[in-house]
Task: inverse folding
């Protein structure tokens, strides 16, 4: 098919296609669509009826949509193509603000056109975007709306459920997060038992929520099983970006049908790539739990695996967690310089969660104490413990106080160290009295 000229009319398109195929107006005609009628359409003095378009399009070897609009895809698919492009832009961190604006425009246009499903999908994507930007209330509203309306399910859209659960956790609604992930894990285990990727994702997030509630034994059990379950998953970010780039290029060339096919491939592969990230997060959580248990050498091994899996696909929160846990492990093993370096890398990121900042500050304090800078260590420890305890991270706050107490004791400041031990014991008691969740 020859490329269509800019702003081609239906008449011009009809004439071009007819001549390309070597047909006369009489040869193209049929009962109800005379050659004179075709002549008037080509001259621009008559608009073809739907019936005429349906008779002419098959003879010309094109779709009715293409003959009428010049587009290879229909109205619904054009919405889908725009949605896919905006969703990929959001999820691959390429022009998030522009993508959100595009999604809001799609919502307005779709509602005006009566395309409620397209509007709902765009609102769902806006919910995911709000979550990624830390706009938790807006994210919960939009995502819960999609779940309640049964627009999605845990099998086909795991990203929606894991994001909603993560937002619950960020809001401190840990019981609700645990409940959601347990429901999702049960659903995929029953409906699609061979879908290892989905099981990895939900089990990992369930272990996060359990760990945040202080149920470390159960969290470690789940995450260990998850690491073994997902050991064969691989990273496909490069392939995703190639498909996406090709889709954008084809779209610019006016080849919408091919662009849509590649956009769909990119979306499908993105799910697989996120499974690798979940596997990395499983290693991260394992390392964090091992750090809390004083198993720093084993933690380092888990964190090294996480760093390899994350690669260029890591986001800010993952990197902050990785560097913080690496700093903790390094300090516990006596590597002061590495502990300080890793902790400062974590703290270099702006607008991180208070609990994440608290963990990084406590690790920095431990490293500075090992370097002999007790004044700077005291400031870092103090701020870190305040943030951790204020976020309900009782076990982390307890551990930070004990490391701080050890540093003071080594410096001969026994009275201050004793006060910190009492404070650590208080945090330990708070961790033990944290409300447990019901067993599955």
Result:
């Amino acid at each position: 098919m020859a490329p269509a000229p800019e702003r081609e009319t239906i008449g011009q398109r009809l004439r071009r296609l007819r001549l390309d195929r070597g047909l006369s107006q009489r040869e193209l005609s049929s009962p109800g669509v005379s050659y004179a009628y075709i002549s008037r359409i080509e001259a621009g003095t008559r608009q073809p009826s739907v019936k005429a378009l349906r008779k002419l399009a098959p003879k010309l070897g094109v779709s009715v949509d293409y003959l009428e609009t010049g587009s290879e895809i229909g109205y619904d698919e054009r919405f889908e193509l725009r949605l896919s492009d905006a969703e990929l832009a959001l999820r691959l961190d390429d022009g998030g603000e522009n993508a959100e604006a595009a999604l809001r425009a799609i919502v307005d246009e779709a509602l005006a056109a009566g395309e409620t499903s397209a509007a709902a999908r765009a609102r769902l994507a806006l919910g995911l975007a709000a979550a990624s930007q830390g706009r938790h209330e807006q994210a919960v509203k939009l995502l819960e709306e999609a779940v309640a309306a049964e627009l999605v399910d845990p099998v086909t859209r795991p990203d929606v459920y894991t994001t909603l659960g993560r937002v619950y956790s960020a809001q401190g609604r840990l019981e609700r997060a645990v409940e959601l992930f347990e429901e999702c894990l049960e659903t995929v285990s029953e409906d699609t038992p061979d879908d290892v990727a989905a099981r990895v994702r939900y089990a990992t997030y369930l272990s996060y929520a359990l760990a945040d509630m202080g149920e470390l034994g159960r969290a470690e059990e789940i995450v260990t099983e998850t690491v073994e379950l997902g050991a064969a998953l691989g990273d496909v970010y490069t392939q995703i970006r190639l498909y996406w780039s090709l889709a954008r290029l084809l779209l610019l060339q006016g080849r919408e049908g091919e662009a849509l096919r590649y956009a769909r491939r990119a979306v499908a592969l993105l799910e697989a790539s996120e499974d690798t990230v979940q596997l990395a997060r499983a290693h991260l959580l394992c390392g964090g739990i091992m750090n809390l248990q004083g198993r720093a050498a084993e933690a380092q091994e888990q964190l090294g695996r996480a760093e390899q899996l994350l690669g260029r696909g890591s986001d800010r929160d993952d990197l902050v967690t990785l560097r913080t846990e690496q700093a903790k492990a390094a300090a516990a093993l006596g590597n002061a310089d590495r502990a300080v370096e890793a902790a400062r890398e974590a703290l270099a990121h702006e607008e991180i969660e208070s609990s994440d900042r608290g963990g990084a500050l406590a690790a920095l304090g431990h490293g500075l104490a090992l370097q002999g800078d007790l004044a700077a260590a005291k400031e870092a420890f103090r701020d870190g413990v305040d943030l951790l305890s204020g976020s309900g991270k009782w076990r982390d706050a307890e551990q930070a106080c004990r490391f701080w107490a050890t540093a003071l004791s080594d410096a001969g400041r026994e009275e201050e160290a004793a006060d910190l031990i009492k404070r650590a014991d208080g945090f330990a008691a708070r961790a033990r009295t944290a409300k447990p969740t019901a067993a599955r």
